[in-house]
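USER: Fancy drafting a protein?

ASSISTANT:
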Amino acid sequence: MNEQDRRSEIVSEVIEDQRYSLTRWIDYFLSEDSAQYPMWAKYWTINGLTKLSKFDPTKSSFGNRATGTVAPFPELNREALGLVLDNLIKNVNGLPSTEVRDEQLTKLLEGANFGKLYGHALELAGFGANKQFPSNDGRWRRFERGSNHLSLVASLEERNTGWCTATEGTAKTQLEGGDFYVYFSYDSKGIAAVPRIAIRMSGENIGEIRGVGNDQNLDLQISSTSILSDKIKTFGPKGESYLKRESHMRLLSALETKTKLQLPLTKSELEFLYERNEKIEGFGQTDDGRALEIIKKRDVRADWTVMLDGRFSPAEVSITESEALSGAFKVHVGNLYLRNKQFPDGTRFPELMFGQLDFFELQNANGLVLPRELHGSLHIYKLRDLKTLHLPEVVKGDLRIHDAVSAGVKLPLRVDGNLVLDIRNAEGLLLPKYVGGAVRLVNLTSARGLFMPEGSVDYSGPADIEQRTSR
């Protein structure tokens, strides 16, 4: 990779990190989980948030964000945010705070500076502490639906769970909707007082399960045990969908431990880690970041050689855009998002690709040869002449072609996902023999001469399509 490519990748990573960190806050404020907060409080939060840079845990304060700041926006900790907003709202309404008796918090409320309040709340919540728990042994405690929510709040105060349930408003709302179970492990004094797992019920069904690890996933210690799966089984059929998540978290913890001990991973473990056959499901607000952290420490090319049964050497596996477009590799791993790219005539992608492939505003394909087999989705936007493009034979995800004028192109034989074609001319077009998802023909007035693919039962387009395969 040359210096310009590396610089472009770094810029893309910075933009994506900032976008992701800000989206977390916006998504939360648009969700039902924040319905208890008035709009002015949400506006005040976002306005203050966008002025903040990195958090310094030694000072419990944030740096100021400037035009050239590359750091992501502050991490969303619902417990700390709830502490700030609950007390701010009470202060504005002239009501006394019964949740936290803290002189510094009271003083900071008068200034209504989000950065200072949130920084202090993170300190109170013990944010950033890499905790090692004295024990996994403990007991479950049930907080009954409609019971006094202050008992639940008190059991979670200053425990750095990150759960919004640790604030009065949310705890009251959640107990109105169903029972709430918390698993408390024993502290150093032998008291079951350390919250580790929460199960919120929605009526008679499980609403969500949260842990105290990153993004409210299970922590490494507890996910290595059967404590949660044993509890889920007591709910009968209602808990079955959560058993798969629990098994994923337990396996991920085992891989994390093996990585720390520098032990080799088997082919099946690698396929799980790289999500080849299914997505890793956890209990947190977002994907469990441990898988990516493990992958960062590994030789990706060597791992894929193992997963592909040694058919390709590590030297034949590309992992960057420049490598994928060089024509010197047989396999590519990773997503490619190509915008306004000019390709030399006859450019060939690797034969196999594992990831999503997107083309934006590709005016001329110039005989571009795409991977023969794409294990991901293919999106093509604004390509005027499809005839010069050599598409894959097999697309394991969706195939979406938008705003295309010329349709005389040989489509893949097989598309396992959805097929969406926004075309105006079907002359010379052959639809895939098999489509696993929906078929959508957009802006096409007639499908005469086209044959409905096998597999798909969900069709939207001209009614004159033939109900048999074309190949």
Notes: DSSP finds 14 helices and 20 strands in the chain. The mean pLDDT is 85.
